[in-house]
Amino acid sequence: MFFPISNSHINPLYLVVVGFVIGILGGFFGVGGSFIAGPALRLMGVDWNYAVGTDLAHIVGKSIVAARKHRSLGNVDLKLGLIMAVGTIGGAEGGAQLIQALKRAGNVNAVVSWVAIVVYVGISVFMLWESHKTLKLHKGKSRRTTKASASKADHSAFGPVTKKIQGINIWPMINLPISGIQISLWIILAVAVVGGFFSGFLGGGAGYIRMPSMVYVLGVPTHLAVGTDLFEIVISASYGTFTHAIKGNVDILIALVMHTGAVIGAQIGVVATQYFAGPKIRLAFVPLPLIGAAIVIYTLVTGHKL
Amino acid sequence: MKKDAAKSLRAFAAELGVYAVLVTGYFFLVLHVLGNWLYRLETQHRVVYAFAAVLLIAGQAVVLDAVTTVLFRLVRGRSK
Fold first, then answer.
1. How far apart are CA A209 and CA A296, in angstroms?
2. Over 60: is that where the pLDDT of A161 sits?
3. What residue spans define the domains of chain B?
4. Do residues A209 and A121 make contact, with C-beta atoms less than 8 angstroms apart?
5. Quick check: B39 and A64 CB within 8 A?
6. Contacting residues for A256 by C-beta, under 8 A, at least 6 apart
7. Which residues in chain B are contacts of A236 at CB distance < 8 A?
8. What value does the mean pLDDT take over residues A170-197?
9. By residue range, what is the domain housing residue A59?
10. Into how many domains does chain A fold?
11. Cβ under 8 Å to B: A residues 227-246
């Protein structure tokens, strides 16, 4: 099928399948899935600028469906999501500015690639250690709980550090009853700005950084972190889609085809979270940043831009 | 318990089926009816195209999700 906006020929079934896979990952982990969507579009010969912009557009639709579903399950903290959206947009602009500065310096590809590898591998190693340790610590306890209560139960081996962060008393303190925490506004904004910065710097929605940050730094339960992250992605990805569309980087027809698969996958992913406890979701999350790291290493070694 | 799980799985599969049909229909409608118009907008009126892009993708998600839920409730209501 010919897509005139990006001037590319792509089998629509391929787009639907890619969207479906990303939809499942998004619904289950609260990530945009750009580390798969971008290279998948590049493989079909879509220019890199269209791959980035079109990916953001399809993320908007998929995240709306997944966030609505999560909200119906009580997994979205709207207050937290709205505060974070402000910080994310600001951080994304900062990341984009740094990219421009590196472009002028002439070493953007090398710097971004190495930062991406360190960040992706760092997140995976940390989450593997933490979720494995948490599951080990609570193995005996979970056997004594019922299956229903265990699915939403959330413990973390990083809990003592999170408590200390929550105890930092810098005005104004924000009460988040849905997440069950009270924390300084500045810590929430710092987490959002860092997530947004990496979104602007490394591309995509940066859910692979924001979701773990919400769990480990803010102390938000994993199910709520996934749902709230998706809600926040709706706002930041809409902003990103709009600005990319103005720059001529969005083929909305490709995004709509991908979306037909993504919405179905997202619904399956959301329902699947009901059957897993927080540490297990975090453990299953570990391979995702590693896939991103593998793609970056591949491009560094071979010189091909996926 | 197993019966309940099978029932909710069937209900979920039915909802997904309805959703898939609606989304696919909507996509073909947009591609065939709005395809050329969107292409012209993208080349001549970028700001309007940007608004249309966000509205289309959000509309696909919000409206079809809501319609599917209503349809599903109707189907479930009849089966009861």
1. 17
2. yes
3. 27-80
4. no
5. no
6. A58, A61, B27, B30, B31, B56, B57, B60
7. none
8. 93
9. 2-302
10. 1
11. 238, 241-243, 245-246
Within 8 A of A65 by CB-CB distance, chain B residues are 61, 65
| pTM beyond 0.90 | no
Q: Tell me how close the Cα of A246 comes to any Cα of chain B, in angstroms.
A: 5
Partners of B62 on chain A (C-beta within 8 Å) are 64, 68
Cα–Cα distance for residue pair A287/A269, rounded to 1 Å:
16
Q: Residue A156: CA atoms inside 13 Å, Cβ hemisphere, count?
A: 24
How far are the Cα atoms of A145, A152, A262 from residue A149, in angstroms, in the given order? 7, 6, 29
Q: Which residue does chain A place closest to B57, by CA atoms?
A: A61
For A69-118, write each residue's pLDDT tens digit: 889 889 999 999 999 999 998 898 888 888 878 878 887 778 888 888 89
Chain centroid, CA A59 distance in Å: 10
Residue of A nearest to B33 (CA): A253
Mean per-residue pLDDT of chain A: 85
Supply angle C-alpha A225, A193, A24, rounded to 5. Answer: 35
Q: Which member of A241, A253, A267 has the closest CB to residue B54?
A: A241
Element housing A60 (H / E): helix A48-72
- Direct distance between the N- and C-terminal alpha carbons of chain A, in angstroms, rounded to an integer: 21
Question: A153 and A142 in contact (C-beta within 8 Å)?
Answer: yes
Distance from CA of A214 to the nearest CA of B (A): 25
Choose from A50, A250, A252 for mutation: most chain B CBs within 10 A: A252
Coil vs helix vs strand at A211:
helix
